[in-house]
Amino acid sequence: MSDSGLDRAAETGGEPRRKGRLHVATVETLRQMIVSGTLPPGQKLREQELCDRLGVSRTPLREALRTLAAQGLVTLSQNRGAEVAPLTLDDIAQLFDVVATLEALAARLACSTISDEEIAEIGLRHYRMRLHHARGELPEYFALNQQIHRALIEAARNPVLLDIWEMMSSRVERAKYLPNLQGERWHAAMSEHDAMLAALLARDGEALSGLLRQHFANGLATVLAAASQAAPAG
Q1: Residue 81 carries which DSSP code?
Q2: 3-class SS at 182?
Q3: Where are the domains of the chain?
Q4: Could you give the CA distance from residue 77 to residue 61 in angstroms, rounded to a whole number?
């Protein structure tokens, strides 16, 4: 291609690509702030404050807020503007129930379709996650945890299942962050992932399905216990 052709390609394609990257980066930054609790449920999302904080203009910020609203992390209204979506205990219980069912189904499907290379990649992420657990590095642990769960869904080779899971995954990840995952529960969660990896290596779909259901049940129990301890007496 000639220099003029490259210039034309940059003129026609460079700006949309740059805007696309900016949108993705803005969405991901805000998503992590909401999931981690930096922006807690019910907090008003004031545009100018967020623009200054993220270094973006109002247009990409508003586009990002609309994307996060579609993911159930933000609520938008004419009267109140944008707020971090509330997250009730009923919401959490229902989310965990649905996502546990989706991942249990994915486990059975994946064990008959997953490649050796995909298992090896999940295994690598697992051992990196174990390293972050040993170091007490919770954000890094959670990031790899989510990657492992997503890889299992993708290995099921069912686009509809993946679409539904993606609609809920950010809200479930947010719920997992609510309790301070430390001590015995964190050790137990890591052991549960050890067992899940062993079942995946054996391609035992039924065992992996059951382990995933129990994993979510244990996680939900932790969230509910943390919420009850935080509730005011009387």
Answers
A1: E
A2: coil
A3: 3-84, 89-230
A4: 16
Q: Domain 3-84's class?
A: mainly alpha
State the Cα–Cα distance between residues 154 and 219, nearest whole angstrom. 22
Please check whether residue 222 is in contact with residue 186, taking contact to mean a CB–CB distance below 8 angstroms.
no
Asked if CATH classification 1.20.120.530 holds for the domain at 89-230, the reply, yes or no, is yes
Residue 12, classified by CB atoms within 10 Å of its CB into exposed (0-12), middle (13-18) or buried (19+), is exposed
User: Measuring CA to CA, how many Å separate 221 from each of 46, 89, 207, 225?
Assistant: 34, 11, 21, 6
**Of 226 and 179, the one with more pLDDT:** 226
Tokens of 202: 């054996």
Tell me the two tokens of residue 97.
């129930």
Q: What is the pLDDT of residues 165-215, one digit of tens each?
A: 998 988 888 887 776 556 788 999 999 999 999 999 999 999 999 999 999
**pTM of the complete model:** 0.81
